[in-house]
Amino acid sequence: MLIVMKPGAAAQETDAVVNLIQEIGLRPHPMPGATRTAIGITGNQGPVDCRRFENLPGVAEVIRVTKPYKLITLDLRPEKTVVRVGNAAIGGNELAIIAGPCAIESHDQAFAVAEAVQKSGARFFRGGVWKPRTSPYAFQGLGEKGWEIITEIRKAFRLNIVTEALEEPHVDLIEQYGDVIQIGARNMQNFALLRRAGRSQLPVLLKRGMAATLEEWLLAAEYIMAEGNYNVILCERGVRTFSQHTRNTLDLASVPAIRRISHLPVIVDPSHGTGSAYMVTPLARAGVAVGADGLMVEVHDRPELALSDGAQALTPSEYAQLIREVRAIREVTTPIANESRIETKVA
Ligand code: PEP
Ligand code: MN
What's the gap in Å between 119 CA and the centre of ligand 1? Predict the structure, then answer.
């Protein structure tokens, strides 16, 4: 259920609704918007009696949500969410660029890539400290040593650090040394990890599972939000299909599809979405053209020596050219507005 306050409702009126929700043992999620505040309710197993809220001062309407999700929807928040991270934002007017190597491999590699990333004007540096690898014998990331390097990069280049948490204790470390918690495709339905990230103050970048439907992906975001963390960024990174010419099939239609349902920002990862460096720039252009709020791109100073995902890594000069091109596309792309919202059925 969702309670929409009148545009001029007083703060005390909103507080009174929030308190009542708590008193009946449920969890309120107030979302202030440009014109009105809406309050989502979670924690109920069955339907909540709408009528107890209907006559409270300041309440405009009480809506029974019939979709499987409650908090990610435009019904709760008609304006797009802008996730703010330090000096940067994802979901605002500026195209957000998150770039860096697949994994932190050494001080020299990470610094060379960070320099290229900073030079391009990007505000986010990515790099795995722990890597989720298909084979237990493949490079698993530098672990603690990787943290030392990434901490130095954060300081030296003033870039916001995006790195993946493979398990719950990793979230504690990212909270100390990083800026954005990445949850990878393989962990999109690791519900304990989603809940832990939902209790964090840091934004969460949630990648689409490689076999996840749009609904499953959005419900994973809902897990994070239900714990009180509303700063979620969705990342389309492709799904597995019968196509053999790419590592994954980058489902760019998910970008406008999400826009119709959700206020959350969505970015595109053309690196994992294709698996081949020569396809990364064309798909990055397409991602920006379909209205993505940003891109995640893998870059390596020596792709031929990379310990993971070298085939899809761009060199610094290829990356710089990509950035010039996508910025030009962004200039002429009208962001897809959220006006095409789907109405929630009212019971
Ligand atoms: C990554 O970003 O390096 C990664 C492992 O991505 P994904 O979870 O999308 O496979
Ligand atoms: Mn990778």
Answer: 24
Whole-prediction pTM: 0.95
DSSP secondary structure of 259-319 = HHHB-S-EEE-TTTTT-SHHHHHHHHHHHHHTT-SEEEEEB-SSGGG-SS-GGGPBPHHHH
Query: From the CA of 272, how far away is ligand 1's center (Å)?
Result: 7
CB-CB contact of 97 with 89 (8 Å): no
Pocket of ligand 1 contains residue 207 by CB under 6 Å: yes
Residue-wise pLDDT for 57-80, tens only, equals 999 999 988 889 999 999 999 999
Q: How confident is the model at residue 45 (pLDDT cuts 50, 70, 90)?
A: confident
Instruction: Supply the mean pLDDT for the chain.
Output: 94
Separation of CA 207 and ligand 2 centre (Å)? 12
Tell the residue nearest (CA) to atom 10 of ligand 1: 185
